[in-house]
Write a structure and sequence with these properties.
Strand content: 15-25%
Radius of gyration: 24 Å
CATH architecture of one domain: 3-Layer(aba) Sandwich
Bound molecules: coenzyme A, adenosine monophosphate
Strand order of the largest sheet: 5-4-17-16-18-19-20
Shape: globular
Structural class: alpha/beta
Helix content: 25-40%
CATH topology of one domain: Rossmann fold
Distance between the termini: 48 Å
Mean pLDDT: 97
Low-confidence stretches: none
Number of helices: 18
Largest sheet: 7 strands, mixed
């Protein structure tokens, strides 16, 4: 086993050697001129001058190496009762054919393809096919509403949109086509074509002259070879929640991404070619990009695409069935999935029915892992449970327990240590380094390692303003926490308006914009309150306009519907309290942080700058009536 400390130091002291060696494991059409280009702006770049195709490395390379008959992707769908295995040969054929279909619609290197799909193999095929052409995909999570989709269409300006007739949630069939049609109606930019995968659970009427049937276009397609692009050219754009309703288009490049994600498979997760790796997430999130599609395939593993939930499809043994049936070595999911299983099967009775000897470790991320969940999972599984911390912007773990380098002692509540390439610092508001054990803003000293975002799509200035401006020479993670005397990181909270609901990243600012658009709402604040299952839940506090004399319940249910219609069901916005006033500082800033503490029953200091402290008592009363602010 290697030594973590030595590797970590080398990665910071000699990044060219460290990442140059990692890059040598991949196929390059042309080697890079520079490993690290420190002079690039707005941020340093990786592997400039190199030419690479990500799809080639994820698919064709394994076929060329003689592993075409190995399983590449297993689709396991308890919601439809289907299973299907694609070997690397099959995947290459399907991807090459769909790339041909995209090319027939005029998609070339650099063009964008927006993918709005459920968890079916065609979603991964569409991503890889886009990458094959050197084009840029932007996957939009299926739980977002038409309005969110329209925002992304306008920003990414896709030439083609790929979608399906429906997604399947345990309690309903989610028809996608009306959402897609509404989004295209709303958006200023119009795609030249939409390719729709028809599923038997819902029909999707096609718009003549614009919409095409997936099966029909594939049947006519000419299989297409890989088109190498500059390592620094974008592979994808993934929109994520920021402070406002306008999501941030995180850009991922081809070269750095492939190198870093490939490196993590051995060094972070300790898997190799032929192992079965399962990320129980969704292709619409970064976890799905990195660890359902690219990571396992770049490493020649078998990836699982699971269309179901941890509970209810059909029971809380669903995950154990998948692990034992397919021989999963590593499972990666969000802590909320384990809280859901624990709630329904606290004694782990379902677990006892399955042989999980194939499994080596469980990795958790997406939200802070509360120690209780970690203890429960470890006790029931009798395997290492690794909490690791990262974000859409980085694409891979900033901090983890590097099982493939040197397994380290687990401290529940901490995602362990900084990964190679990440020079993590804890800074005070003034920019001074905090002593061990003291909270501050978590930042990463530039350069960030490969795969981290080089900019936001079409908006260098927002990238600079959001991430690079607060502390010169450092990337602002948006998280607060501390480092302990052993070098372990502790990630405690966000410093902005982002909340994590069931592992889904959402913007309270975006929800406030929706509430504020209601004709009866004068003012509002959305806060993230603690939730035993989902980690956090959004809660809206609203002040009605003077003269509005309506039943609070009616207004509340209109607001819940409004957020569902405009942001989507994934926002899980269900809690609304009507108050007379909102607490503010004398300069008019709403005291959201104080309200969160009141709601969660935590101690708090009445801010010295508060306009009128009595308002806090009124807020507490409302929150108590809603079942919060206890203790
Ligand atoms: N398309 C359409 N709707 C979707 C959707 C999708 N892809 N995904 C979720 N939704 C809907 C759900 O049906 C639900 O709707 P409802 O209000 O009508 O019930 C709503 O969005 C909220 O979804 P969610 O927050 O996922 O809650 P849930 O009660 O359906 O499930 C968990 C809770 C914990 C079981 C589930 O969130 C889970 O498995 N999470 C962990 C894994 C994960 O996805 N992590 C993401 C990052 S790693
Ligand atoms: P996302 O971009 O959706 O991956 O969300 C990233 C954010 O989720 C981070 O900035 C953190 O706030 C939070 N997060 C993710 N993983 C962890 C973790 N292991 N511990 C604490 N917070 C986490």
């Amino acid at each position: 086993m290697a030594n973590y400390e030595a590797l970590y130091r080398e990665s910071l002291n000699d990044p060219d050697k460290f990442w140059g060696e990692a890059a040598a494991a991949l196929h390059w059409e042309k080697p890079w001129d520079k490993v690290l280009d420190s002079d690039a702006r707005p941020a340093p770049r990786w592997f400039t001058g190199g030419r690479i195709n990500t799809c080639y490395n994820a698919v064709d390379r394994h076929v060329a190496a003689g592993r075409g008959a190995q399983a590449a992707l297993i689709y396991d769908s308890p919601v439809t009762g289907q299973q299907r295995t694609y070997t690397y040969d099959d995947l290459k054929n399907e991807v090459a054919a769909f790339a041909g279909a995209l090319r027939a619609q005029g998609v070339n290197a650099g063009d964008r393809v927006l993918i709005y799909m459920p968890m079916i193999p065609e979603a991964a095929i569409a991503m890889l096919a886009t990458a094959r052409l050197g084009a840029v995909h932007s996957v939009v999570f299926g739980g977002f509403a038409a309005n969110e989709l329209a925002t992304r269409i306008n920003d990414a300006k896709p030439k083609v949109i790929v979608s399906a007739s429906c997604g399947i949630e345990p309690n309903r069939v989610v028809v996608y086509k009306p959402l897609l049609d509404a989004a295209i109606d709303q958006s200023v930019h119009k795609p030249s074509a939409c390719i729709i995968k028809a599923r038997p659970q819902a029909e999707a009427p096609l718009v003549a002259g614009r919409d095409l049937d997936w099966d029909a276009v594939v049947a006519e397609a000419q299989p297409t070879e890989c088109v190498a692009v500059e390592a620094t050219d974008p592979l994808y754009i993934l929109y994520t929640s920021g402070t406002t309703g306008q999501p941030k288009g995180v850009v991922r490049d081809n070269g750095g991404h492939a190198v870093a994600i490939h490196w993590t498979m051995k060094n972070v997760y300790n898997v190799k070619a032929g192992d079965v790796y399962w990320a129980a997430s969704d292709v619409g999130w970064v976890v799905g990009h990195s660890y359902i599609v690219y990571g396992p395939l770049l490493a020649g593993c078998t990836t699982i695409m699971y269309e179901g939930k941890p509970v209810g499809t059909p029971d809380p043994g669903a995950f154990w069935r998948v692990i034992s049936e397919h021989g999963v070595k590593v499972l990666f999911t969000a802590p909320t999935a384990f809280r859901a299983i624990k709630k329904e099967d606290p004694n782990g009775d379902h677990l006892k029915k399955y042989d999980l000897s194939c499994m080596d470790a469980l990795f958790l991320a997406g939200e802070r892992c509360d120690p209780d969940t970690l203890f429960w999972a470890r006790d029931k599984l009798q395997k290492p449970v690794v909490d690791h911390w990262w974000q859409t912007e980085t694409g891979w773990a900033i901090a983890s327990n590097p099982l493939g380098i040197e397994p380290m002692e687990i401290k529940p509540g901490s995602p362990t240590v900084a990964m190679p390439g990440y020079d993590v610092r804890i800074l005070s508001e003034e920019g001074d380094e905090m002593p061990d054990g003291e909270m501050g803003n978590i930042v990463i000293k530039l350069p960030m390692p490969p795969s981290c975002l080089p900019t936001l799509w079409g908006n260098d200035q927002r990238f600079i303003d959001s991430y690079l401006s607060k502390y010169k020479g450092y990337y602002l993670t948006g998280d607060a926490g501390y480092r302990d005397a052993d070098g372990y990181l502790w990630i405690m909270s966000r410093t902005d308006d982002v909340i994590n609901v069931a592992g889904h990243r959402l913007s309270t600012g975006a929800m406030e914009e929706v509430l504020a658009g209601h004709p009866d709402v004068a003012e509002c604040a959305v806060i993230g309150v603690a939730d035993a299952l989902k980690g956090q839940m959004p809660l809206g506090l609203i002040v009605l306009k003077a003269g509005v004399n309506r039943d609070d319940k009616d207004v509340a249910s209109e607001l819940v519907k409004r957020v569902r219609d405009q942001i989507g069901p994934v926002a899980a916005f269900k809690l609304v309290g009507v108050v007379k006033r909102l607490p503010k500082t004398r300069s008019g800033k709403i005291l959201r942080g104080t309200m969160v503490k009141i709601a969660d029953g935590e101690s708090y200091k009445v801010p010295a700058t508060i306009d009128d402290p009595v308002i806090l008592d009124e807020i507490r009363g409302t929150l108590q009536a809603m079942g919060y602010a206890r203790g």
